[in-house]
Amino acid sequence: MTLQINLGSLANMKVIGLMSGTSADGIDAALVDVRGGKKHLQIKLLAFALYPYPSSLQKTLIDLASGSSFSIAQFCRLNFSLGERFADAVMTLSHQAKISLSEIDLIGSHGQTIQHLPKTTGRKEMTGSTLQIGEPSIIAERTGITTIADFRPRDMAAGGEGAPLTPYFHYHLLRHKKKSRAIINLGGISNITYLKAGASIDETVAFDMGPANMLLDGLVSVLSQGKKTFDLNGAMAKRGQVSEKLLSELMRHPFVKKTPPKSTGREVFGGKMVEKIIEEGRALGLSKNDLLATTTAYTVSSTEKNIQAFILKKGRLDEVIVGGGGVKNPVLMQGLTDALHPIPVLSFEDVGHDPRAIEAMTFAVLAYQSLHQRPSNVPSVTGAGHAVVLGKIIPGFQ
Description:
The protein is of the alpha/beta class. The protein has 15 helices and 12 strands. It has helices at residues 55-65, 72-96, 136-143, 152-157, 166-174, 213-223, 235-239, 244-250, 254-257, 266-269, 271-283, 288-311, 330-340, 358-371, 379-382; strands at 13-20, 26-36, 41-52, 106-117, 129-133, 147-149, 181-186, 189-195, 205-211, 319-323, 345-347, 392-394.
């Protein structure tokens, strides 16, 4: 059988995007119809599903990303076994959507980030680097579909931070001729994309603002001794009181006030920070609920500070659209609504999109553009010296 890259129709491709975020709770899989070219894309979500990881695998991935000791052999096997899970996600979504694998033109897999180390986080002489696992060759082999992965390294090779990459997708999905919009993703990390009304993609502003679910989930896991993995509906935060003293201390973190471009991850806001918050909370006599209330307020306050310092100086802001897992936390959403008043705070659902699918859809679109040799990083966002085609292609055999 001859291997070949199936370009399908330039005007219409069915692409599956795969994403496993910093919470490492499972694989987001989105089947997307993508049409168009460099400047104008039509994007339609056809199907979406989340395939949860077993709690043991989630713990392994978080421990690995947090710097726990693993042998090279363990790491090697994990890369391949995770690739099998990504391939299974593709085949399961195809079955659930009642679309055969032969009808799917392309897969874009982000993988699972183990370390993301932009140059700005290390010593001046250090080279920036990033590592995602979930072997894409396994995905291509099991499904027979051309797979594109490792999207971040090329941007970093061009001098960028390798993140965020979602602004390219945000621009094509949500730009507006008359409204200036901010898109906030409340995943493990809170990040923002600012789309000025009628602006070109080169005028896009985007960056990571600080922690979101990463700290909240980490706290819940430790405080419950692993019995819980997240604060369902913000119930713990709702019962607690915000400690202004601890909040003030958290807001002094240098990343919050750092000037963009900037990106971060578990290496900054992971397990060590969780331990620090718990230690300082105990010294202040705070309850578990108080810790959740204060850390939730930390996400709200760091978001507000970044918008005031780096967005509103660029122009007006007509509305904020929020996605990511944090949308399901009513305490967090109400906090943002109050902090940003009178600017309307909406969810992706309010503007007709599934908030759970956004990141997986992003990598479907990036893969589509990469296959057609079109750059899809945004140098004004990542700090790269120029626009580049992202990812590495593993041909399928359809």
